[in-house]
Design a protein that fits this description.
Layout lengths: L4 H12 L18 E4 L10 E10 L5 E8 L2 E6 L3 E3 L6 H16 L10
Antiparallel strand pairs: 1-2, 1-5, 2-3, 3-4
């Protein structure tokens, strides 16, 4: 028994229409005190406002959805999807370790080799 092409097409389309539950996986939500850039679709990234996270506002499911920021122009609320977290290490231990790594890298530099051509 052969299946008509229309029936095959219907079976494929019905399989594609299966309702799938959307799984929300948070991707590094900001912490209080983090420095962030506030994305603006009308401006190039170099002109985005910079701010510090003052307060986190979790949603009904416990995930952080909105933050309160302090910017140059005042205090604003923005959703975290419009924020870009800047990778700045502000803890003193990490800062001291990075300074020590820099000092070690400077002292262990080899002088450039001279090549004879």
């Amino acid at each position: 028994m052969r299946l008509s092409p229309e029936l095959c097409r219907c079976r494929i389309l019905l399989g594609a229409r299966v309702n799938r539950e959307r799984v929300y996986e948070p991707t590094g939500s900001p912490d209080s005190g983090d420095i962030v850039l506030v994305r603006d679709n009308n401006l190039p990234p170099g002109k985005w406002a910079m701010g510090r996270v003052l307060k986190l506002h979790p949603g009904a499911d416990g995930y952080v959805r909105v933050t309160t920021l302090k910017t140059q122009n005042g205090v604003i609320k923005r959703p975290i999807v419009k924020l870009s977290i800047l990778p700045i290490n502000t803890d003193s231990k990490g800062y001291e370790e990075s300074k020590a790594d820099l000092r070690n890298a400077e002292t262990s530099e080899k002088p450039p080799q001279e090549y004879q051509l």
